[in-house]
From TrEMBL:
<dbReference type="GO" id="GO:0030431">
    <property type="term" value="P:sleep"/>
</dbReference>
<keyword id="KW-0325">Glycoprotein</keyword>
<dbReference type="GO" id="GO:0032222">
    <property type="term" value="P:regulation of synaptic transmission, cholinergic"/>
</dbReference>
<keyword id="KW-0812">Transmembrane</keyword>
<feature type="signal peptide">
    <location>
        <begin position="1"/>
        <end position="24"/>
    </location>
</feature>
<keyword id="KW-0336">GPI-anchor</keyword>
<dbReference type="GO" id="GO:0098552">
    <property type="term" value="C:side of membrane"/>
</dbReference>
<keyword id="KW-0449">Lipoprotein</keyword>
<keyword id="KW-1133">Transmembrane helix</keyword>
<dbReference type="InterPro" id="IPR050975">
    <property type="entry name" value="Sleep_regulator"/>
</dbReference>
<dbReference type="InterPro" id="IPR031424">
    <property type="entry name" value="QVR-like"/>
</dbReference>
<keyword id="KW-0472">Membrane</keyword>
<protein>
    <recommendedName>
        <fullName>Protein sleepless</fullName>
    </recommendedName>
</protein>
<keyword id="KW-0732">Signal</keyword>
<dbReference type="Pfam" id="PF17064">
    <property type="entry name" value="QVR"/>
</dbReference>
Amino acid sequence: MLLYQRSFIVVFTILTFLTIGSFGIKCYQCSSDTDPEGVDNCGAYTNFDKERHIPVECNSDESKMPGTFCVKLTQQSPRGFIWDGRWRQVIRRCASVANTGVTGVCNWGVYENGVYWQECSCSEDSCNSATNLGLAFSTILATLVISQYLM
């Protein structure tokens, strides 16, 4: 019994130290839907400019949503969804609960209205600035489009 108590204390101590480091994460926060007309501050159509944004401490008053990790959500309409071409939206923010229960992964899918989405989570400072996730998102979209034509 004493051995189990010691093991529990050791595991608890290690988990406590690992968790303490995750409370101070800084993430970028922006949303394409709040950009002024003709401006792409959040990187929906162009590369995200890290020089124009300052990562925010997720558990501070500046954060719009508290959290322990960062999220980048990308949404894109199918062709012809809007009369002037494809619509795309990017949201970067802090988060406290991942849909998958883990961070460091990307999930994707299609809403009922045909809008493609990808949500990537990560747990390092400023990690939701990644622009290389766009390549993965484009690959997924191409795969979905091709699979629809083959069916």
